[in-house]
Design goal:
A five-stranded parallel β-sheet has the order 2-1-3-4-5, with helices on both faces. A five-stranded parallel β-sheet has the order 7-6-8-9-10, sandwiched between helices. Helix content is about 50%, strand content about 20%. The chain folds into three domains: about 1-105, 3-Layer(aba) Sandwich (Rossmann fold), CATH 3.40.50; about 140-290, 3-Layer(aba) Sandwich (Rossmann fold); about 305-450, Alpha-Beta Plaits (2-Layer Sandwich). It has about 450 residues and is of the alpha/beta class. The radius of gyration is 30 Å and the shape is elongated.
């Protein structure tokens, strides 16, 4: 069985009808016959989605929904309200209670299943983002700023300019929404270049041609700049078939025209909340990945990631690969004399110099303390030695500024160099071992030297 769905309805026949539809789509189905039972099951069974009847005798669906959304253990479970109430006021009340959608009886099966798929796809995506980062993600999220809810940009893409103006006028009274009217061509332009990608696109299903809005939805979902934006489709009244298609193409929500602006505003804010959560998770994951691979002082790769990158280079490269192990001469005396803050400043400055001098695409890492590693493709051993020795001169050629000294401090470095040839099938540990041996030779020869390891 697939995801677990809880059906809540006090009428057994209604539960059975929904159960048959869901089980035919290979969902696992749980049932609750009252609001209080639904609250207990939501906490203990942790369903992936809840279909919730509104009119129940003990505790109505709106109250159940509000309680579930207040409870940290259940607030992220998507909820679809199902009711026979057709008026806009009831729909608005349901959406304001925290429901993700509000469907009226009799429920269209295709639209229901499409809505279920859409919500599960979104919640599963959020869960995957959380799982990928694990503890590193939690740590990174603490350092990731919360999104600014005052900068919510909504792009309206309507079939005619006057329709877009009418939609914007209806939404004008709702705070926190920066409304823009866009054409299809503007939506498909390189929005990322101006950093102005809207948070949500509201798109009419039919633009200049029938279904052109659906094609635009698919295009926007496929493009890196817009694939994470929220998408809401505006459909002709009762067009359940294309509503299902829109949801399956990646729309986060749908609304039927003519719509109540208040309903549109509530749905937009729900979409914005989901997008902000996903954006922050992605940013946190990216920060977590950086924390896992980067030395926090210098911003260079750390030892673990450097070894991974070196293995990758050895597997992928078809030519020669130079591996340098670089050690700052007499660095302990610098720390002892000027303090660790001065030592840290030197390490940071040295990292900047290496990044500025070395070619793009090479691996630069801090292996620990005052030891660094560089791996880069080279033409041959002679070119590798020239690059390494020039780097040594770059390090020693200009003094390092220390706050407590009037003049810059001269720092030198010793370098051990090993060159991997394609035919040798050398491993990363063996290469570093060879470069280390060459480094010791540089130290023994008086420091501020570059030594080339003997061929294996």
């Amino acid at each position: 069985m697939g995801e677990r769905i809880l059906i809540v309805d006090d009428v057994a026949t209604n539960r059975i009808v929904l159960k048959v539809k869901l089980r035919s789509a290979c969902y696992e189905v749980l049932q609750a016959s009252s609001g209080h039972e639904a609250l207990r099951m939501a906490r203990h069974a942790a369903p992936d989605l809840i279909l919730l009847d509104v009119m129940m005798p003990d505790l109505d669906g709106l109250s159940v929904c509000a309680r579930l959304k207040r409870d940290p253990a259940t607030r992220d479970i998507p909820i679809i309200l199902i009711t026979s109430r057709l008026d806009h006021a009831s729909k608005l009340e349901g959406l304001n209670s925290g429901a993700d959608d509000y469907l009226t009886k009799p429920v269209d099966e295709n639209q229901l299943l499409a809505r279920v798929r859409s919500l599960l796809r979104e919640t599963n995506g959020t869960a995957e983002l959380r799982q990928q980062g694990a503890s590193a993600l939690d740590l990174a999220l603490e350092a990731t700023p919360a999104p600014n809810d005052t900068e919510n940009t909504i792009a309206l893409i309507a079939p005619r300019p006057e329709t877009g103006l009418f939609w914007r006028a209806g939404l004008a009274g709702f705070r926190g929404l920066n409304i823009r009217i866009m054409t299809r061509s503007e939506a498909l332009s390189d929005l990322s270049a101006s950093q102005s990608v809207p948070d949500i696109f509201v798109i009419a299903t039919d633009l200049s041609h029938r279904n052109e809005g659906l094609r635009l939805l698919s295009d926007l979902r496929s493009r890196p700049a817009t694939r994470h934006a929220g998408m809401m489709m505006v459909l002709p009244a009762n067009d359940a078939e294309r509503a299902a298609i829109a949801l399956d193409l990646g729309a986060g929500d749908i609304i039927y025209d003519p719509f109540d602006p208040a309903e549109m505003a509530v749905r937009l804010k729900t979409q914005l909340r989901r997008k902000r959560q996903a954006d922050r998770l992605r940013a946190g994951l990216s920060a977590g990945m950086q924390m896992a691979t980067t030395d926090p002082l210098t911003g260079l790769f750390n030892r673990r990631y450097a070894m991974f990158q070196l293995d990758r280079l050895l597997c992928d490269i078809s030519g020669n690969l130079a591996v340098m192990v670089i050690d700052i001469d007499h660095f302990k005396s610098v720390n002892d004399r000027f303090g660790h803050a001065a030592g840290d400043a030197i390490l940071t400055d040295l990292a900047l110099r290496m990044k500025s001098f070395l070619p793009d695409g090479c691996v630069i890492a801090r292996m620990g303390g005052e030891e660094f590693l560089v791996a880069t493709p080279v033409r041959d051993g002679s070119a590798a030695y020239h690059l390494a020795d020039t780097l040594r001169e770059v390090i020693s050629g200009q003094g390092f500024v220390i706050d407590t000294m009037e003049s810059p401090l001269t720092i030198t470095a010793s370098i051990g160099l090993a060159v991997a040839h394609p035919q040798n099938n050398q491993t990363a540990p063996r290469l570093i071992e060879a470069a280390d041996a060459a480094l010791y030779a540089s130290k023994a020869d008086g420091r501020n030297r570059t030594s080339l390891a003997k061929p294996a």
